[in-house]
Predict the 3D structure of the following.
Amino acid sequence: MKTQSSYRRRSTKNGKMTPDEDDFTALNAWAKNLKLEDGRPLIPAERREERVARSVGRPAKPQSAKAKRVMISMAPGLVKAAGRYAKQTGRTLSGLIAESLAEKIGRKAS
């Protein structure tokens, strides 16, 4: 038997009671009736917090560090052998080709 009300004792700025956050039915009904005018502007600390929360994921690479895709042709046997070798040494085929080219032309792979 539930003895507590599903609404908190605290009310919002306009005097409306807010639902208990454990009562999902009441919370859903309350949220559907929200209007933009019922809110308030974010304070700077909340704005920073929101900006951090929105910036999830991998950071963008600088343009100079982005990889360029190229299409190359090789004999199927060579591709298969290179793929096996790359897997055995813990590399990717792309990384193996890049290292090999850098070694061949005497340039540091980046």
In short: Residues 67-105 form one domain.
